[in-house]
Structure formats: C-alpha cells, structure tokens
Design brief:
Blueprint (H helix, E strand, L loop, with lengths): L1 E7 L2 E7 L11 E8 L6 E9 L5 E5 L6 E2 L9 E2 L6 E2 L6 E7 L1 E10 L6 E3 L3 E3 L14 E9 L4 E5 L4 E3 L3 E7 L8 E4 L6 H16 L7 E2 L8 E3 L16 H10 L9 E4 L6 E6 L5 E3 L2 E3 L4 H6 L11 H15 L8 E2 L14 H9 L24 E4 L2 E8 L8
Parallel strand pairs: 3-26, 20-24
Antiparallel strand pairs: 1-2, 3-9, 4-5, 4-8, 4-10, 5-6, 7-11, 10-13, 11-12, 13-14, 14-25, 15-19, 16-17, 16-26, 18-19, 20-21, 21-22, 22-23
Helix pairs in contact: 1-5
C-alpha cells in the first residue's frame, strides 16, 4: 500500500492508497491543464513541492509554466524569490498548460485579483501563504490550493479543506491512459462559485443551534464578503474556542464500551495486516484496542487528529487504529455503532460533531473533499469521502478554479 505525505497547518499526515494496476510506465513528468472558471481576468497559479528526481530539492515552476526554479538558501529570513513564479491563467474560460517533473508534497496554488507572496528562509525553506498569521503578506488575498504527488507509482491529488474553505473553489478531473476502460475518468466536483457563502450560512446556522462559535470561523472584513472560513482546528486564531466541546462525547464512548459496566465492544477494522481488532475500556480507564491503549482524547486532539492519544509512532497496528478511531470521533459515529470505519449514513448525525466538516461535505456538489486530516477513512468498498483522484497511468489532469460550470460526474 503506497503512502502519500500531505502537509497541513496542523501537522503532517500520511494517506494510504491502494496499489494500482496499470499497463504503462509512470511518466517522469506530466502536463497539467489549469482552467480559469472564475469571473476574473487576473488569476494566477503557483506550483510548489519537492523534486523527487533532484534529491528532494525544493522546486517551483516559473511563470512560463515549464521552466523550473530551485531556490538557493538565502542569507536572511523572509527573503524574496529570485524568480517570478506567478503563472497567469488568462481570461475566464481559458486553459493554461504547465509542465511538472515528479514532485512529492506538491501544491497547486491559485490567487485571484492579486499575486501571492512566497518567501525563503535559510535552508532553503519556503515560507508559504498563511491563513493564520494576520501579518502575512497574503492575509487579505483570495487564494486556495490543491495537493498532489507525482511519483514513480502514480499521480495522487486531492482538494483540501483541512485548514480552510476558500472563495476560490477547485475541481479535479483525471483521465487515465486506458481510454474507455471502467473508471477511466475520475472527477471531483468541488463547490459552486457560491460555495464559501453557503458554508458561512451553515456555520452561522449551527452557531445559532448550539451556541458554539462556528460563526467566528468566518474571516470577513466589515462591509465585505467573506474571504474564507477556517477549520475549527484553527479556531484560536480568530477567537473561536471549542475547549470542552467533544469531552461529553468521549465520556459517553468510555461509558458505552466500559468493561466494568459490562458495556458493548467496539471493533476497529485496521484495513491492514492487523485485521479487525476488538476494543473496550479497561478498569484503568484506558481504551484498549488490540494490544494498544488510548487515553481519553481532548477536543483539541480530536480536531487536530495528531496530538495526545493520536500521536503516531513505531507500532504499525497503532498507526492503523488512530485514523479510524479519530475519524469515528470527528464524525460522532463512535457511540452510534460498534463497527468502524462505519457507513457515511452514521456521520455527523448528532452533537457534538465537527459541523465544519459536515457543512463542507454538504456544500461540495458531490459531497467529497478533505475536511479533516483523516477524511480518507472509509469502510471497505465504501464510497470515497476525501475528494481524491489517483492513477498509475495519468493521461490528462485538469485542475479548474472558480466553480463556474462545476458539475458532478
């Protein structure tokens, strides 16, 4: 099973993707069609990542869409790039082709009506646009990104809402070499052009229902339309505290699966070599799944999925349990059913739950998109929730920005 590393503001997470069968050797490089589906004549793209064939060097694609820029380590922090890497997309409805080498941890960034500012620190380390730092030069810029990896095995890409929802919706279409074969075309619809407004409406409605600060996640200047909506993982950056929110759910889970109370037994399908493992709460108050023990997670642990009991380590079994356990808590499915991963019909059906994630999925035209770190968790044979495309024989890869003409396949 292949692994792909994605970077989020809250940490690094590995996604496991089933090996693919394909008849042709993966390309050393690939053309990507970038389509302007906005109403703006001033849209820019940026391609960043780690160059696999250059010993992991940091790489950006230059403004012409084909030449590569390998930054050198600067002598000072926050130094400007030495090359122009803003790729103009042309007027609405136009397509711009860019050429990329094999890249790991890649991102395709888009901005509308203003260019993005990327900076360099010694290393070189690329300082990417931040939605959490109000002094960041991009704080007031309308931008978004999709994530991808192109390596010797396959192209893997996804749309991400792990950190925020942008006013620039992104859609993905991947056409494989095996034209006419089943599933030869994969499409992730993204949101329509009003996607962010609908997300904000949902957050405001949820805040009215439960009194939690979902509405404070909306980044908006007085008299202007919302610029973005942050994930509750980053609520502290905008004064939205969710402290204590998930603790009642955790207490309910611990009571339900308590051995002392002769409670139910959960079963976690690791979907890996350890198989399906039974779980229950011991007399010591620890959740024991197989041979792994888990302390009670806090709200911050559940929202971020990478702290407290969800820190990964050398145990393959534990590393397989964590995504499924964390996802079941984020989705409020753990107290509802005993078998996990569970069917999507069990997701977000009660409080407390990550309603940001629920709303994101409801607004996406096909219901797909990474709304939290382990949103790729699904039952065996289940429908993907994560908004990913992947193939070992990519032929045409289209990334559309703006949401106009967005459709479901």
């Amino acid at each position: 099973m292949a692994q792909f590393l994605i970077f989020t503001t809250s940490g690094r997470h590995f996604l496991k993707v089933e090996p693919l069968e394909f008849s042709e050797k993966m390309p050393d490089s690939l053309d990507i069609q970038l389509q302007n589906h906005t109403n703006s004549h001033e849209v820019y793209a940026y391609v960043t990542g780690i160059a696999i064939q250059k010993n992991g060097a940091r790489v950006l694609v230059k403004a012409n869409g084909k030449d590569l820029y390998y930054p050198e380590s600067p002598s000072e922090i926050l130094s400007p790039l030495a090359e122009d890497c803003a790729i103009p997309l042309g007027p609405p409805g136009s397509t711009t082709t860019v050429h990329i080498p094999q890249i790991a941890g890649g991102r395709i960034w888009f901005s509308s009506d203003a260019k993005l500012t990327f900076l360099l620190n010694p290393g070189p380390a690329l300082v990417e646009p931040s939605v959490l730092n109000p002094s960041d030069p991009n704080a007031d810029v309308n931008f978004a990104f999709a994530e991808f990896t192109l390596n010797a095995d396959q192209l893997f890409a996804n749309i991400s809402y792990v950190d925020f929802v942008s006013r620039l919706p992104i859609a993905l279409t991947l056409d494989r070499h095996q034209a006419g074969a089943p599933d030869s075309v994969q499409h992730v619809s993204g949101m329509g052009p009003d996607g962010l407004d609908r997300v904000c409406d949902g957050l405001r409605a949820q805040a009215r229902r439960d009194g939690m600060p979902w509405d404070k996640l909306i980044v908006q200047k007085p008299g202007q339309a919302p610029l973005r909506a942050l994930s509750p993982t980053h609520g502290a950056a905008v004064g939205a505290s969710f402290d204590g929110y998930f603790e009642p759910l955790v207490e309910e889970v611990w009571r339900k699966f308590s051995r002392a109370g002769r409670g139910a037994e959960m079963r976690i399908n690791t979907q890996a070599a350890p198989g399906t493992l039974a779980g229950s709460v011991s007399e010591k108050g620890e959740l024991v799944v197989g041979d792994e023990t888990f302390a009670k997670p806090t709200t911050a642990d559940i929202l971020g999925c990478n702290t407290g009991p969800f820190v990964t380590g050398p145990s393959a079994a534990r590393n397989a349990i964590i995504p499924r356990l964390a996802a079941a808590l984020v989705r409020a499915a753990l107290p509802e059913v005993g078998e996990h991963p569970s069917h999507p019909s069990t997701f977000y059906g009660r409080d407390p739950a990550n309603h940001y994630a629920r709303i994101v999925h409801e607004v996406n035209l096909d219901g797909k998109g990474y709304a939290f770190a382990y949103d790729d968790v699904q039952p065996d044979g289940g429908e993907d929730q994560s908004g990913k495309v992947n193939a070992g024989d990519p032929r045409v890869f289209v990334v559309a920005v703006g949401g106009n003409g967005a459709y479901t396949s």
